[in-house]
Amino acid sequence: MGLVKYLTKRFFAILVTISLVLAVGYVLIYISPGTFYSAANMGQGLSQLQVSDPALYTQYLNSLNSRYGLNQPLIEQVGKYVWHSLSFNFGTSFQNPSVPIVHQLASALPISAILAFGAIGLAVALGVPLGVLAALKRNTWLDSALTSVSMVGQAIPAFVLAVLLVLVFGVWFPGILPVSGWGNFGEAVLPIVALSAGNVAVVTRYTRGSMVEALRQDYVRTAEAKGIPYRRVVLRHALRNSLVALVTVIGPTFAFTVLSTVWVEQIFTIPGLGTLLATAFQNKDVPMSITSVYILSLLIVGMNLVVDLLYRVMDPRVKLE
Amino acid sequence: MAAITATAGVAVRAPRRHSQLSLAWRRYKRNRLALAGAVVVFVYLVLGLIGPWVAPQNYATTNFLYANHPPSLRFPFGTDNLGHDMLSQVLWSMRNAIEVTFGASLLSLVIGVVLGLWAGMRGGLADMVIMRLVDFMFAIPGFFLSLFLVVAMGYTILPVLLAIGIPGWAQYARLVRGLVLGMRNGEMVEAARAFGASRAHIARLYLLPNVANSVFVAFAFGVPFDLIVMAGLSVVGLGLRPPLPSFGNMIAQAGTNVLGYPWLMYFPAAIFAVILISFLFVADGLQEALNPKADEGGRIGRQRRGGRARRLGSRGAF
């Protein structure tokens, strides 16, 4: 299939997926009980107004409803919401009516992106060498140690690891690295470490598996027979071919990492997209909660497309479909 | 022991018949980690069952005189800022976690197996629609759908169970459909059809038993994953609402209090981690025990296990 045709097809698939996410999210929040106009969100004045002047109170709520279009039929609301979101016209959130959501995203998205991509980068930088090492020393104590450790690393979710890191660097060895906040390089270290531990494990195991497979291939034997130094055989012949397969795990791993940033940001109190998402959901802030899920989904879907294309570039035998 | 029959002076050992289950158990026993995991999981299930009776306090009991009390004889795991006994909290959390995760995984399994069987058997339009839905669910983490579902339904046991269980079906549907497609045109189904068996009959009596092993293994991986999702919901404040205790709540709470009261994190986080790891060891052991073909070459087995990472990563569903 030609590249243009493939991209068009994928583009429409992504469009449908994202629209469904938006529509389902909107409908579910629409039918949920409770309202944003509670005393906790709007201040005590509102409940006083309800008692002292019910007519004015209703008028006030109606004006808010018509401002956000909440008095229109559900179908119309969903259609408009999906269309506006797809054209990146997010409007304002309920909690901060004076700040457009786009501005909030502009400060939050880069933070989450740094965390997610940093975690993936660290995972590849650490996991590939460890995987090669395990494959070269396979069936020794080193191999089984690496395999067991990576199994444990894979099992522990990022938020548990994050709390553990806070304990280590906050209580046992305070002062080495900051355990909360965001702003300088040091504050990014622990969140990225917490996020990447599971990914390091995944990459290590996967690299080990495909390296073991590659080292048994005929072309490796041929290369060795030709008298090429073993180091070069490993790096040039075996590893290169193993890395192609590794690209395919990056997509799903990235999806899970993006999800984990939501959790890790809570533990380290980082003002990223995850924090926007959590506060929005807790307060029933309809536009903000759907938009944050939308942006995170877009990140994941976009990364999957990039991975598929990269796979194609790295392995010409792969056909796009 | 095997019966020994003498035939013309030659002792022939009649082959002993082993049931598939005993063969699987034999393979499972070889894996020490899986055995250890099974012990921990068993203890966890028992504690979850009897926990509410043996817990020193009710989960909602507070004692402000002993708020933030470090671990002592009276409070083995310490107390939190409201004076909850953390040991009781952990025991009640186990009960809640078992109810939610097993219920949610079972719900995903039932939806997924039914849709998978249907898609695989019927083919055509039904297959296409179901598989498009599966693709959609795999494109984006199911956690996002869980968020919306919790907001829509509420913050107690049953709504959280549904919110975790509903997005999880795609995994099972894809697995079952793939297996059914492999059998649909086989001799077994052909013979059954020749005898005039209905589709439902074939699905129930011929296909279901043959996918049971794989589905069971997927279930074993599904339970710890749902445990992570359940705790993850609590971390963003959308899990079980206090006073209902859950591991996620305790861990999220520990994150903010860890500087002053580190015991709030030691016990819940450690126990949660041990339970998760044990479940994964068990699932891994089951995978090897129930799928002997994957076990033949150690390397193939390992590679297949590598695939779990992918499953964990993208067991997505929304």
State the CATH superfamily name of the domain at 90-289 in chain B.
MetI-like
How many individual helices of chain B?
Answer: 13
What ranges of chain B have pLDDT less than 50 throughout 5 or more consecutive residues? 1-7, 294-318
Report the radius of gyration of chain B as a whole number of Å: 24 Å
Average pLDDT number of chain A = 85
Number of helices of chain A: 13
Q: Let me know the CATH homologous superfamily of the largest domain in chain A.
A: MetI-like
Alpha-beta content class of chain B = mainly alpha
For the CA atoms, what is the radius of gyration of chain A?
25 Å
Greatest interface by residues involved: A-B, 60 and 50 residues
| CATH architecture call of the largest domain in chain A | Orthogonal Bundle
Helices and strands of chain B, in order, run as EEHHHHHHHHHHHHH
What proportion of the residues of chain B is helical, as a percent range?
Answer: over 70%
Strand content of chain B: under 5%
CATH architecture of the domain at 90-289 in chain B: Orthogonal Bundle
What's the short story on this structure?
The complex is a heterodimer of chains A (321) and B (318). By secondary structure, chain A is an all-alpha fold.
Could you explain the architecture of this structure?
The complex is a heterodimer of chains A (321) and B (318). Chain A contains 13 helices and no strands. Chain A has 321 residues and is mainly α. Chain A folds into two domains: 2-86, no CATH class; 107-282, MetI-like (MetI-like fold). Chain A is elongated. Chain B has helices at 20-30, 32-54, 86-122, 124-139, 142-153, 157-165, 169-184, 187-194, 199-235, 247-257, 263-290, 292-296, 298-314; strands at 4-7, 10-13. In chain B, a hairpin with a 2-residue loop joins strand 1 and strand 2. In chain B, helix 2 (32-54) packs across helix 11 (263-290), helix 3 packs parallel to helix 7 (169-184) and helix 5 packs antiparallel against helix 6. The termini of chain B are far apart. Classes of the chains: A mainly alpha (321), B mainly alpha (318). Chains A and B meet through helix 1, helix 7, helix 8, helix 9 and helix 11 of A and helix 5, helix 9, helix 10, helix 11 and helix 13 of B.
